[in-house]
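Handoff note, outgoing to incoming analyst
You'll be picking up this chain. Sequence as last confirmed:
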Amino acid sequence: MFRCRLDIPNNSINDCHLMKITQIVCQILRVESVAAKTASCQDVALVRVRTDSGLEGIGEADASPEVVKAVIDAPFSHNIACGLRETLVGEHPLEIGRLWQKMYDATVYFGRTSVTVAAMGAIDMALWDLMGKHFGEPIHRLLGGKRHDRIRAYASILFGRDGKETADIGRRWTEAGYTAVKFGWEPMGQSESLDCEIVAGAREGVGDATLLIDAGCVWDARTALRRAHAFAEHNIEWLEEPLRQDDVEGYAWLRDRSPVPIAAGEGECGSESFRPLIDRRALDVYQVDLSRNGFTDAAYIRQRVEETGGRLCNHCYTSPITVAASAHWLSTCRDAFLFEDCVEDLPMRNDLTLERMQADDGYMTVPDTPGLGVTLNEDFVKAHLVSESV
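Most recent structure output, in case you need it:
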């Protein structure tokens, strides 16, 4: 039997031709009590790709964990309606581009721009992690090389109930070292007066720091334009998701008229989902979530956005796995001007990996160890596991 030996530091795999995927496991982790709010990671869809060499890669999908698990676990129905595990077991894990297309083709009847692509993205993330471990290289090097060693982070947090509480939240995070803060979602959209009050409170709290506002998909285009003019007085860096996520024409109309930059894209799954936004030049800032796109499609989206002159930012409101993935990907972008850093203090956000993936003194450092550069805390996984593929 021919075996190919690779003279690469820290490489634990000597069989480069015969390595095969033997298991794809989806583990659902959840805190004891899930709050009814737009929260950070209260649960996690953790994907583990294992090979006959003993090497494992990890990934994460930001979607309903049970739905992600169903997409992975589904048996063969026919050639374009097949679960992802059935599609990939037995394949060579380093042939990532081909495997992405194979997953896409096998799920045409229930995928294309849906949670299916998010599940594909989690497997893709795990495959890139596995490849990095195989070659002893960080993912950003496999993606073509990082342009940034560290990226200015913004503290990503929800609004307070009113202007005063929002101002207090802003002061807390600027005092913690952040030079940019984003406020989002509830209670934005209840009334014009409250909208203006909480944005004014946000500006008061952060002082001269960069201020970003996430509306949470609450308005029609004309109302959004009115708010954009009102918020411009507070010198906001961008207005995020003022419209529902699939209103491409609305975003193009708004971006052409808004006095402030328009950001969106966090809910998009894959290049086909991003394509109409990019083709219409509908946004100023395209927010790509690695846990909904994976590295393979995120690299393509990066190229398309940069070709059209748009700016890129990560979306990341989940676990340290996606934080690490986001840092690798965003470091390869030409204009990595801000990094989303969720600052909600929840166990899934901080304790799932042995490494703490959080900004230090307002900057996110890009990992330089093989693969994603994070290690699962297996005791934590065991304590929070509620469901697992078999």
